[in-house]
Task: structure prediction
Amino acid sequence: MNVILLGAPGAGKGTISKHLVDKYSMVQISTGDILRNEVKNQTELGIKAKSFMDSGDLVPDEVILGIIENRIKESDCKRGFIMDGFPRTIAQAEGFSDMVGRNNLVIDAILELEADDDLLIKRLTSRRTCSNTNCQAIYNVLYQPPAKEGICDKCGSELIQRSDETEEAITYRLKTYYEKTQPLIDYYNGGSNYHKIKADLPLDEIKASVDSIIK
Ligand code: AMP
Result:
């Protein structure tokens, strides 16, 4: 089963992806995580992507499509993949549609996580991420704090606030989302595999909605 997760920053795409990975052994493909890893390793791609990411702009479509084309050919994707944070523009969606056809793949479900801006801003500014790139566990100082403040429960590394998760950066990322990514909702909506999920509910209820669709 292959799934696309749509939704604004902070809607819970990462959390729901991890749920699908744990429960159904699917593979999470997060373009944000891939790019952050490239930035951390100071690769050519990472150096190019960093300025876009820091300002809350989107990395150019052709760069992202290249990353995805390589990633979906890796053998673990046969277990089924979850696109987390991709596609983010109509051009990416069209490029991906061609890629899906060329590689004889099927997208079984497109899940849109819906939440209000106030909640998105609150969730993102209180988010903390493990600084260890092999772990990258996500916490929330309001809703899911670590046992020891500032320290990852899983690996003991320091927790950090991402530079694109300050209130100013988030406001800009939301603007980018509404301009560039929200048009995808109309692009995909209406298909029989398109499902809207309310993402302002307790996590267990969101997971239950997702499970009922996947099943
Ligand atoms: P995320 O963690 O998914 O919110 O992504 C963090 C940042 O990485 C975004 O603000 C963009 O700068 C960049 N990024 C991630 N995915 C994409 C994408 N599909 N297209 C363009 N830029 C992306």
